[in-house]
Amino acid sequence: MPRLRGRPALPALLCSTLLLLPARAEEAATLALPQIDVAGPPGGRGSLTVPSVAEERRILNQTVGSVAFVDAESFQNRYANTLRDVLKDTPGVYVQERYGQELRLSVRGSGVARGFHLRGLELLQDGIPLNLADGSGDFYQIDPLALRAVEVYKGGNALAFGATTLGGAVNFVTPTAYTALAPNILRIDGGSFNTVRENFQVSRISGPVDVLLNGTLTNSDGYRLHEAQATRNFNANLGYQLAPGVETRFYAGVYLTDQKLPGTLGLLDALNNPRLASPSALSGNQSRKVETERIANRTSFVLDVGKLDVDSWAIHKSLYHPIFQVIDQDGWTYGVAPHWAGTFEVGGFRNETLLGLRAYAGQNSALQFVNVAGQRGAQTRNTLQSASNLEAYGENRFWFLPEVALMTGAKLFSANRTYSDKGGLPGNLGTQFADRTYEGVNPKLGLLWQPLPELQVFGDVTRSRDVPDFSDLVQSTNLTNTTFVPLQAQRAWTLEAGTRGRIDRLSFDVTLYRSEIRDELINFSTNAALGIPAATFNAPRTRHQGVEAAVAVELAHDLTGAGDSLTLAQIWTHNDFRFVNDPQFGNGQIAGIPRDVLRTTLSYARGPLAVAPALDWVPQGAFADHANTLRVPGYALLGVQASYAFDPGVTLFVDARNLTDARYISDLSAVTNAALLGRAGTQVFYPGNGRSVFAGLRGTF
């Protein structure tokens, strides 16, 4: 096990803070904040460890900053296979499919140029981290059919979880027996690309015990050659009320993924022959096989003032990943995170405080072999990657007027990254040992004004720091050698202002933000044809700014006198990510993400029937290179979703996508200068899926 590292004063300060909290577990009187939406969907009353969906929404809307809430009920009756299907209606969240379950997930340009997995955004399940200890993460263990809600905390607004990266955090909330939509759920769906998926969910409550089991099996050939996938996801939780005001809940999960990789293509092939797989993907039989097991616990105590939650978790991940070489890794991540939240009066004014700490670490055995048609050849690398983190954070909202709150907060952290190459292999010329510790303080200051129960205005300024993960720090110099690059942590100040609420038939959520960034971690593909992972460098100065807007208006109701409704919704995410006086790229745009992403839906509902055509429009595609010499074309995609609920508890749904069979680029891996690299050097494009239709049947009882 790796040793947790940090300054002795930090854990001592945190422990002393927690010891000062009242320890008697009694029900505390709390003052309810004004809220935007108190009406919750079906899902029960919640419990001490996991509140009801309505209460989760209320807590999220207390945030002084830009946040979003997605009720899983909104995507139950459609084909929700990836996180794009879950988050595509969330402003400010850029999510695009690459292949299978692999996608790009970015908030405010987090990991803007990274062409694989995730950086700069923390993923949590039930408030407990899913990322590895070095901060890296992927999406394979998140099952949309095992969710009850999704909470998006953009940028520094994720301080409530202890996260202070540029992108923030996304919390995936799974149901309990108290919050489940039904005690029993059975579902089967499928369609294009020979896709078949089965899902079950069973939940029960017996006295002080509640239990829920959820499982999903998915098989699909995929749109492209060499894209077949098979996934097996299992989630369970067991809650027990130990005493009045004390509850514990255990979580367990097993996630198995076998995904063939189609690779990237040149621009012409991606647009004209999108079903092709890259030659290197075929010759190397490239794939990604992941076995992940997760266990976690939350134990909650009601105190004289507020509530104390103590989280702990352990994640085991085994990865077999033949790409340019066979990546063979096996590792553990584990941690503990107590956090307390309470409401009390200060001088007769309402005050809300949150305090927490997180101590987590991980160790990963990272081996590499020559790729012989997807099998291990000669070993080329034998390394050990260790990461440890100590964090303390706090946030306070002081309501100095009944409708105005001053928010202050900060996070202190110490993060260590240790790399050890055990060597002894022929041709091993890389770094043998490296050790780097990153430390800092991330403050936050903001104001929240709530003049009406359903209207909020906010503004805040936050500081973020993104610590490099091992994909950044350990870079391939050629097919056999790697070296440890001592990158700086990415630092940014972000200013945001926005409003959210509802006025009569109009609902809205609009935020403007600007981030001034130092040493941004920027990726670029070093050899696209061979599939060597991207290199990373620190850009001296960059700027991210944009608009995150969602507006919906009920155009009409009772059109036929039957209680029906017609609603128009518009999502607009404007991205302006650029270098600032860069010695190589000047003030050009950072490659990877288009400037404008729009989604328009027109929803009609009448009793058991719901129909929603949608238009996804990208007016101008993203630049493929940081020199801005190559831009992909824009596109427009037309789709429609429809569902009909039969009595009792049976729903049939259809989801048709890209009805015009448009050819477009879904995502890409950035390069430095496409004009200098030629055709072979710019095989960095992922073609989007063609026309597809999915249908399913869901039963609840």
TrEMBL record:
Superkingdom per UniProt: Bacteria
Main location: membrane
CDD domains the record matches: ligand_gated_channel
Database matches in Pfam families: Plug, TonB_dep_Rec_b-barrel
Coiled coil: none
Membrane topology: Multi-pass membrane protein
Domain TonB-dependent receptor-like beta-barrel stretches: 196-659
Signal peptide: 1-25
Compartmental location: Cell outer membrane
Keywords: Cell outer membrane, Membrane, Signal, TonB box, Transmembrane, Transmembrane beta strand, Transport
InterPro entries, per the entry: Beta-barrel_TonB, Beta-barrel_TonB_sf, Plug_dom, Plug_dom_sf, TonB-dep_rcpt-like
Gene3D superfamilies tied to this protein: TonB-dependent receptor, beta-barrel domain (2.40.170.20), TonB-dependent receptor, plug domain (2.170.130.10)
TonB-dependent receptor plug domain residues: 62-169
Family matches, as PANTHER family: TONB-DEPENDENT OUTER MEMBRANE RECEPTOR, TONB-DEPENDENT RECEPTOR YNCD-RELATED
Family: Belongs to the TonB-dependent receptor family.
Name of the protein: Vitamin B12 transporter BtuB
Organism: Methylobacterium crusticola
Gene: btuB_1
